Structure formats: C-alpha cells, structure tokens
Please model this.
Amino acid sequence: MTMSIPTTANTVEHIGRREQDELAQARFDELFRAHQPRLVDALTLVAGDREVAADAVQEAFVKAHLRWRRVSRYEDPIGWVRRVAINRLKDEHRRSRRKRAAIERLGAEPSRHEETHFADDGLDEQLRRLPRQQRLCVVLRYLEDLSVAEIAATLGVAEGTVKSNLHDARARLRAHLDPEVQR
Model:
C-alpha cells in the first residue's frame, strides 16, 4: 500500500480552495442579509401572506446556496433568487387554487391565513385587489426598485407588457386612493 504525501503545491491548492469557499460563503451570507428581509416584504404584498412569501424566499435562497458556485458567477445573483421565489409563489398560487376547488367540490370550509398589513392608509388592501400580474409589477417596480427591463426579464414577458401592467395598476390605485379622480 502506497501512501501519498501531500506536496507543497497540493497543500497550497487545498488552502486556496478553502479560502475561496470561505469567501464565497461570506458573499452569500452578505447577499442574504442585504436582500432577504426586503424581498420577503415585497413578495408578501404579492402573495397576501407573509408566511407564504417567507417560505418562497427561503426556498429560493436555499436553492441559490446549493448552486452557489454557478449562481455567484451570474451578473445578477439576487435577480436569480427573486425569479426562483416568484416561480415558487406562482406554484403555490396554482396549488392553492386547486386545493380551494377541491374543497368547494367537497363542500368543506377552507381555513384563512392571517394576513400581514404594511400600511394604515388602505394601500395594502388596494394592492391585494389588483390582478396578480399588475400587483407583481408594482411591487417589483416600487418596492424592489427594478427597472422595466429588469421586471420584464424577471417575469419573462415583454417590456411593453410590464409598462401596460404598471399603467393599469397606477390607474386603479389612483382611482381608489385619490377621491379627486373619482369626480
């Protein structure tokens, strides 16, 4: 049985890899701390439920962590996390809709989740009343501060679709929040 003795080059390479892994982990931790709370807040307005939003964001960050060597090389790693979280919300919405339909067919009463409110002026309620795509565009534009191009890329739609959704959403919100518009 032969035993391999580490050479200086192997030791340096091993230490270099360990330091790179530590730096990558530190970068991931920094990204998580900087973006997780804000992303949960933004997606809570989209989902209407803080727990669902937090679960979606957490799952997205877990997936990013598992794929961090690849994701960290992306131009916008948080954009990737945001997209994964939004996809998770969409999946949850479809699952929830199917569950409600099944409950209705069976004649049972669905349980209600406690909703999180962000504003006392009724804005959060008005946001919940917007169609899902409009609500998502508004949240990404005004809470996440994404450009129209970034929103389009995140949602996989044309920029014109984003502009149209934002225009329609602003008109609906204006009508509900500004009594002068209704006259």
About this structure: Confidence is low (pLDDT under 50) at residues 110-118.
